[in-house]
């Protein structure tokens, strides 16, 4: 298709827009490992030799503060908590942070007897965590319960949850939060719109995901009781554009087909999953095939957002613009604000044109048509590139096209 600029006629020789099924690493999404630390017991040497997974961008960091159940956290404990977060930042890992009193399933026994102690711990650790908020994807839970999962605790009333949530939010500078069950989000938030993510550590384990969902419809249960799975998932999707949802896949009595598995992950807008647990279901995924790759690899490459350039066309004689078709083939939206830029490269020199489109609005399995106006033309051949840069840390977002690297080659302007 021709394109007239300054009385010259141009055409775009397109690059390869084929979608590549190969798994790739992007911030805020993907497989994760769990790294557990106990304040007062974990040594500096253990911190120096952590077995980081080079193909995983995110890490679930559990910090156990159980030994401080009756006291404030001392200077040594606070210093070591900061050392933990600093280590992951230097390693280039984005942290999902869960602070807890128990990692043995003994929440009632291990958490403090006094509610005021938990509040004080939040104030102390919040000051440390806030320093690293640019490197923290979200925090999970509110310290209480077995494994920090907000069950088996003395402090799960609406009053307690609201106070803990308000305290932690104020102490950490508004870092996104995720709770174990959707009903807990409703108990904390005064509004009906959900802005807290969900970490579901029992995906596929049972019909209710071991209590993540209830059985009654919303009309019968009311706002402060669990709803049936279908209505809870609709509720979760409200938060999925603001806070990534994820957790652990756990094998239950029923085996899911590849189609059923993918449908559940899409319905839940899953952005991250444990790459180690549950080995029973992960092994099954590695044996199953889907679109020419293992189901495990397909899931790995489609968790979270996944942007594919479908087409780029020069159009208009008066408007003079590039019409770009962009699709999100992932399970979820991108939750972070990002800048999109068109780059025109001529004789080694680059001109950058900002693209005015909020990439967070591109929902899973949807396409967007984006118009990019050219401000001026060149009389020499040029290459066109597209790039997405996450605003908070300037990290590049890789497209899922075959010809993409940190930037996506759209083609040559001749």
Give the helices and strands, then pairings:
Layout: E1 3-5, E2 8-10, E3 12-14, E4 30-38, H1 44-48, E5 58-64, H2 75-90, E6 94-100, H3 107-110, H4 115-129, E7 136-140, H5 158-172, E8 177-179, H6 182-188, E9 197-203, H7 218-221, H8 229-239, E10 245-249, H9 258-267, E11 270-274, H10 279-287, E12 289-290, E13 293-294, H11 295-302, E14 307-315, E15 321-328, E16 338-346, E17 349-355, E18 366-373, E19 382-390, E20 396-397, E21 408-413
Parallel strand pairs: 4-5, 4-11, 5-6, 6-7, 7-8, 8-9, 9-10, 10-11
Antiparallel strand pairs: 1-2, 3-21, 12-13, 14-15, 15-18, 16-17, 16-19, 19-20, 19-21
Helix pairs in contact: 2-4, 4-5
Protein architecture, described:
By secondary structure, the chain is of the alpha/beta class. Helix content is 25%, strand content 29%. The chain has helices spanning 44-48, 75-90, 107-110, 115-129, 158-172, 182-188, 218-221, 229-239, 258-267, 279-287, 295-302, and strands at 3-5, 8-10, 12-14, 30-38, 58-64, 94-100, 136-140, 177-179, 197-203, 245-249, 270-274, 289-290, 293-294, 307-315, 321-328, 338-346, 349-355, 366-373, 382-390, 396-397, 408-413. An eight-stranded parallel beta barrel has the order 4-5-6-7-8-9-10-11, surrounded by four helices. Strands 3, 16, 17, 19, 20 and 21 form a six-stranded antiparallel β-sheet that branches. A hairpin with a 5-residue loop joins strand 19 (382-390) and strand 20. Helix 2 (75-90) packs across helix 4 (115-129) and helix 4 (115-129) packs parallel to helix 5 (158-172).
């Amino acid at each position: 298709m021709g394109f007239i600029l300054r009385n010259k006629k141009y055409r775009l020789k397109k690059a390869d827009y084929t979608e590549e099924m190969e798994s790739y690493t992007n911030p805020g999404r993907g497989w994760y490992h769990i790294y557990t630390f106990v304040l007062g017991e974990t040594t500096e040497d253990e911190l120096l030799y952590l077995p980081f997974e080079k193909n995983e961008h995110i890490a679930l960091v559990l910090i156990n503060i159980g030994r401080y159940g009756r006291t404030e956290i001392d200077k040594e404990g606070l210093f070591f908590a900061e050392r933990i977060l600093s280590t992951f930042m230097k390693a280039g890992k984005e942290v999902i942070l869960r602070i807890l009193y128990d990692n043995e399933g003994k929440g009632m026994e291990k958490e403090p007897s006094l509610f005021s102690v938990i509040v004080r711990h939040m104030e102390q650790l919040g000051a440390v965590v806030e320093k690293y908020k640019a490197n923290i994807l979200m925090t999970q839970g509110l310290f209480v319960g077995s494994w920090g999962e907000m069950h088996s605790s003395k402090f799960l009333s609406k009053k307690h949850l609201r106070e803990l949530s308000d305290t932690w939010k104020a102490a950490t500078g508004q870092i996104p939060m995720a709770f174990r069950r959707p009903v807990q989000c409703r108990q904390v938030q005064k509004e009906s719109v959900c802005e807290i993510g969900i970490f579901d550590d029992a995906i596929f384990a049972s019909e209710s995901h071991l209590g993540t969902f209830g059985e009654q419809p919303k009309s019968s249960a009311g706002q402060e009781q669990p709803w049936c799975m279908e209505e809870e998932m609709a509720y979760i999707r409200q938060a999925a554009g603001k806070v990534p949802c994820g957790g652990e896949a756990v094998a239950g009595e029923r085996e899911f087909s590849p189609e059923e598995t993918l449908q559940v992950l899409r319905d839940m807008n899953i952005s991250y999953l444990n790459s180690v647990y549950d080995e029973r279901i992960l092994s099954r995924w590695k044996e199953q095939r889907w679109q020419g790759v293992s189901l495990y690899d397909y899931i790995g490459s489609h968790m979270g957002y996944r942007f594919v350039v479908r087409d780029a066309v020069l159009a208009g004689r008066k408007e003079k613009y590039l019409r770009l078709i962009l699709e999100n083939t992932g399970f979820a939206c991108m939750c972070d604000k990002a800048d999109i830029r068109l780059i025109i490269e001529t004789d080694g020199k680059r001109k950058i044109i900002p693209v005015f489109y909020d990439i967070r609005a591109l929902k899973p399995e949807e396409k967007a048509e984006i118009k990019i106006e050219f401000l001026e033309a060149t009389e020499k051949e040029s290459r066109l590139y597209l790039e997405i840069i996450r605003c908070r840390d300037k990290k590049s977002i890789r497209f899922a096209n075959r010809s993409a690297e940190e930037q996506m080659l759209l083609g040559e302007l001749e």
